[in-house]
Design brief:
6-stranded mixed sheet; alpha/beta; 10 strands
């Protein structure tokens, strides 16, 4: 069952075309890895889905909510509804420095969803427990490692119960020894049945976790298939060249 449908999505920055007519259907429970060279629109695609970037043309549909682009003043309500269905995990964790881990997770529940402090606290504590940080609930970001901060950011996203989770290079700002702990949390989220779109340079992880991989180049989807199809038997010369340079046409060393 389709949970997200994107039609003819276009986005440019000045004269640089970043998304060039993207069509994409995402089914409930899909774990889609988004790969490709730097600067080909991967992060922009994620940011456009929840309208952090404003595409100039296209249609985005999530459930019963349909947004036609470019946005008009009349469609501000639809844009807000669209964002309610998605949760985003950023490269940089985006935590409030003056709030504890618990308060960071509670914030959206209170200000966006209008929950009471008591209910928000109960939900937030449960999600902190799920990411292994229950004992860090009263810690401020400055007293946590990058991996712990990213896990708080993931808990904050999960607390909002989004239908689709968008992960934009969630491990790129982490020291190498902290990457695995975050990847393991993402794997546990995937196992819970969430629908996820993941942009990452951790190709071996994407290959293992995804049921589908899309390859972007020049603002277009040039490959779309199972991990085996895209990584082992890409149809386009551009994808073959990319994977060859990254030496990824071999058995990955990441084990889940």
């Amino acid at each position: 069952m389709a949970i997200l449908e994107i039609k003819d999505l276009h986005k440019k920055f000045k004269n640089n075309i970043v998304l060039d007519g993207i069509d994409l259907v995402v089914n409930k429970g899909d774990i889609i890895g988004i790969v490709g060279p730097s600067g080909t629109g991967k992060s922009t695609l994620l940011r456009s889905i929840n309208l952090l970037e404003k595409p100039e043309k296209g249609t985005i549909t999530i459930g019963e909510t349909v947004v036609h682009l470019p946005l008009t003043r009349k469609e501000k309500k639809e844009a807000f509804e669209l964002r309610k269905h998605t949760g985003m995990v950023f490269q940089r964790f985006g935590l409030f420095e003056h709030k504890t881990a618990l308060e960071n997770v509670m914030e959206g529940l209170i200000t966006v969803q209008g929950k009471s402090k008591e209910e928000a606290k109960e939900i937030a504590l449960e999600e902190l427990r799920n990411v292994g940080l229950f004992d860090h609930q009263n810690h401020y970001p400055v007293h946590m490692s990058g991996g712990q901060q990213q896990r708080v950011a993931i808990a904050r996203t999960l607390a909002m119960k989004p239908e689709i989770i968008l992960l934009d290079e969630p491990t790129s700002a982490l020291d190498p020894e902290l990457v695995t702990e975050v990847l393991n949390i993402i794997k546990s989220i995937a196992d819970q049945g969430y629908t996820m779109l993941l942009v990452s340079h951790e190709m071996n992880f994407i290959r293992k976790i995804s049921n589908r991989v899309i390859f972007l180049d020049g603002g277009k989807i040039i490959e779309d298939g199972t991990p085996a199809e895209v990584f082992e038997s890409p149809k386009t010369e551009r994808a073959k060249e990319f994977f060859s340079k990254m030496n990824l046409l071999k058995e990955p060393d990441y084990i889940i």
